[in-house]
Amino acid sequence: MEDYDQKYYKSRFYWLWRTIILWIGSSLGFMLVAYLSVGLSVDSWETAFIVAGIVGILNALLWPLLSRILLPFMVFTVGIGALLLNGLLIWLATNFITGVTIDGPALIITPIAMAAISTLLNGVMTIDDDATWYRGIRDKVKKLTKIQLPKLLEWSSWR
Asked: Are the beta carbons of 101 and 94 closer than 8 angstroms?
């Protein structure tokens, strides 16, 4: 059997460049929404870059906790709660940085735009990334052999 971990290994530089590209994409997303004049104003490219970084850090730290706490709300609202939570995190990030203000419809439009840009960039960057799929299959096979194979053997001995 082929070793897919070795075949599809990505170096640290691959992940670093991927993070930088997503960060730049998020910065461009903030600038695009600010350009549309819907309630978000960003003073400069540097400010947009810093806000994108802070939003990324807040998402990494707070999203797992808040999404578990607010899961019933997110399920009840069919995912719109996740956009509202992203809007809250973006609003929190703009409170830390001078030169960025957000209000009005931008609280809804900005998370939608950021999610669209992130989805598009992730889709383009992982178009040839089969490693995740192979790892998922490998983990499922390991799980099945650990849990179901002994039960199957036990059941077949009763016949």
From this structure: yes
User: What are the structure tokens assigned to 72, written together?
Assistant: 């019933």
CA distance 126 to 145: 29
**Could you give the residue ranges of the DSSP H alpha helices within 70-104?**
71-76, 80-96
b/e code 33-50 from CB counts within 10 Å (16+ = b): bbeeebbbbbeeeebbbb
Q: What is the pLDDT of residue 18?
A: 83
Whole-model pTM: value is 0.71
Segments making up each domain of the chain, as ranges: 9-128, 130-159
Distance CA(65)–CA(109), nearest Å, equals 24
User: Quick one: pLDDT band at residue 46, thresholds 50, 70, 90?
Assistant: very high
Under a CB-based contact definition with an 8 Å cutoff, are residues 65 and 58 in contact?
no
Burial class (CB in 10 A: 0-12, 13-18, 19+), 116: exposed
